Amino acid sequence: VTTTHAKLMLRALSGEITERPPFWLMRQAGRYLPEYRATRAEAGNFLDLCYNPKLAEEVTLQPLRRYGMDAAILFADILLIPDALGQPLDYLEGEGPVLDPIRSAKDLSALNLENIHTTLEPVYETVSRLSSSIPSECTLIGFAGAPWTVATYMVEGRGSKDYVNIKKWMYGDPVGFSTLIDIIVDATIAYLLKQVEAGAEVVQIFDTWAGVLPDNEFRKWVLGPTKRIVEGLRRHHPDLPVIGFPKGVGGNIISFVEETGVTAVSLDTGTPLDWAARNVQTKIPVQGNLDPILLVQGGEAMENRIIEIINRMSTAPFIFNLGHGIIPQTPPEHVGALSKLIRNGSTS
Ligand code: CP3
């Protein structure tokens, strides 16, 4: 395959086998970096940081300055959509996001799709600033949460272990529940279109909790909504690269790739490389899947696995990434070693 792109990331996404894999890391901006913690303290709370274009731009650029990733990901959060829809949201220290839960169809009247851009405008300004401030060889990624994963937080009101409230609604009143999913689909299309108009070159859809559904429900609440988002985006931007990340879905990733229309798919840490090379990478470019805990460990264990992943996956279009986000305990110098190894083939 030959393309006209100069950027490594866009070349891989267009189906090219590149001289080395482009790399970026989920949660590459975050608490493992002292400069992030300083900017976050300056902003006040996490939401204020997300809605402050200057500071959100700054934290997006921080990992690029240190490590020169091939892509920058907009600094924001998947839960800005419920916030913009009018569902009160807070991030508690040491606990994560907390929302006033929506538990049934009668609670849906509290959500308002009309005004989301009023709340989200600062995010578009962050994208627009980044599109001129990132290095010319770097690709700008916008993102949103997938409707299922965003809905888990909206209904459970926080992170969950068993998803009992959302599943009870989904099984007990699928028609009412589909109204919630439809609202998130529409908001997500509008949100991502604005990011693209502001300069995002690629978008990634994070479906962190797609793996908790049985396959018939996976089809209804993951495949269908993701497909509608991809179609909604492509109606306006036929060539827009879209990366899907259906985490924890095992063999269901095959129907995800065949039916949603995504350009590329991100593999979680548990996906077997050989299996993915044969069954997924033969269809579309893949991204992934280093265990984020190897980035905490560093040294030989990390380096050996990085080399193994690159060797196994580089005979077809491949983007190096983690299987899930960087965690706060990660020593920054281990990210430096990873960057050197991918770029130069050695850590020195
Ligand atoms: O660097 C990047 O990847 C871009 C920014 C980004 C954040 N969250 C910043 C963030 C992205 C892409 C996300 C996605 C996100 N947010 C997901 C999907 C991917 C995943 O990690 O599973 C989910 C499920 C969320 C929801 C969310 N936001 C949770 C559960 C939490 C609390 C857990 C935690 O790590 O603290 C957040 C907060 C959050 N989002 C932080 C960051 C940097 C930490 C906030 C802080 O600074 O205190």
Describe the structure.
The chain has 348 residues and is α/β, with parallel strands linked by helices. The protein contains 15 helices and nine strands. The strands form two sheets. Strands 1-4-5-6-7-8-9 form a seven-stranded parallel beta sheet. Strand 2 and strand 3 (96-99) form a beta hairpin. Helix 4 runs parallel beside helix 6, helix 6 (116-133) packs parallel to helix 9 and helix 7 (147-156) crosses helix 9. It is globular and about 60 Å long. The two termini are 33 Å apart. The model has no long low-confidence stretch (mean pLDDT 97). Coproporphyrinogen III is lined by residues 26-31, 40, 46, 73, 75, 77-79, 91, 96-97, 143, 145, 159, 206, 208, 325.
**Assembly state of the chains shown:** single chain
Small molecules held by this entry: coproporphyrinogen III
Q: How big a fraction of the residues is strand?
A: 5-15%
How many DSSP E strands?
9
Order of strands, widest sheet: 1-4-5-6-7-8-9
State the separation between the terminal residues, measured CA to CA: 33 Å
Which stretches are poorly predicted, pLDDT < 50 over at least 5 residues? none
What is the SS-derived class?
alpha/beta
Secondary-structure element order, N to C = HHHHEHEEHEHHHEHEHEHEHHEH
On the 0 to 100 scale, the average pLDDT is 97
Shape by Cα distribution:
globular
DSSP helix count? Answer: 15
Helix coverage percent: 40-55%
Task: Report on the biggest sheet.
Answer: 7 strands, parallel
Radius of gyration: 19 Å
